[in-house]
Amino acid sequence: xxxxxxxxxxxxxxxxxxxxxWWRRFFIRLRxxxxxxxxxFNIPVLGMWIWNAIKARDFFFFTLTNPxxxxxxxxxxxxxxxxHHIPDAFKPKTVLLKAPVATADIPHIFEQSGLxxxxxxxxxxxxxxxxxxxxxxxxxxxQYISDHPIDIILQTYVELxxxxxxxxxxxxDGTESAVTSICEKHFLQVKGDGKTTLGQxxxxxxxxxxxxxxxxxxxxxxWNEVLSPxxxxxxxxxxxxxxxxxxxxxxxxxxxxxxxxMVSLLRTMPGVYYGRFDMRIGSWEALRAGREIRVLxxxxxxxxxxxxxxxxxSLWKAYMDMxxxxxxxxxxxxxxxxxxxxxxxxxxxxxxxxxxxxxxRTN
Length: 363
Hints:
This protein has 363 residues and is α+β, with helices and mostly antiparallel strands. The protein has three domains: 6-15 and 191-233, no CATH class; 34-92 and 159-186 and 246-361, no CATH class; 94-157, Dna Ligase, domain 1. 36% of the residues lie in helices and 18% in strands. The strands form four sheets. Strands 11-7-6-12-13 form a five-stranded antiparallel β-sheet. Strands 2-5-3-4 form a four-stranded antiparallel β-sheet, with helices on one face. A two-stranded antiparallel sheet has the order 1-9. Strand 6 (162-170) and strand 7 form a beta hairpin. 32% of the residues are buried.
């Protein structure tokens, strides 16, 4: 079968056995620490937490890093409440749908808010790509709401070409501020050569192999399709590392212009001094000029400096970067404590944690 963009072959489907898949994934992770499970990578990070907690004499000192966010943004924070403080010029149209959602009201909500498809749907509380989906139609949205009866954020899909994550902090007394990490996200994709099937292209790419089951479900009907030479197919439109996105170190772009704009954005959020902005931008030049910027979300003290996940980045240097950022959190918390702020209590942290895990488990 021929078309303007693709041909189909009669080759057998390229299917991998579960045992072969397990071993291939094992060696992928063995070779590249960026694919390690978080609980493995974070073993030394736990030591950094404990060391800074000893210095602060408070195990939950990080809650004082961002006293304007529950738990400092470590878990369970409201995404929409954080975005509320960011000027409209720097964020996409965003609507919070409180559960239970009356589906009959959704067309009216779209009309009143100016939302248009496609939209990004994501939980009001969540992290690391959990339940984030690109929704292309009303039927898909209604199905998503039916499948996930929780508070949901809808955002107009931003078409700007670059998706980036930028880490920034500002000391409460205003004496010091910096951008410490810039990561550019390269979405999971394949490029056709006019000969190789989609399934084969997927199996040739390690980070796609780690998403094998999802990609089989999504592209099974096209598995034997041969992409035209140069044709690029985005396999996963959501820019999260755990969903196959490649993170690229762009710290070379850090300069005074970017620092100034990012610190200004950070300061629009009361009681927030540290975190990572996930954004779409038109270009690096546009970012330096303070235009074509759309903040998708902000992550507080749980955020990693995403540039460390650049393929081939030194594991030792990654841990040094993590240690630096934990020390920044400690210094901000110490200053906030001197200014009279109090950290969250053990009881409030445990209560929030129980509610958070119940929420994740039931959804």
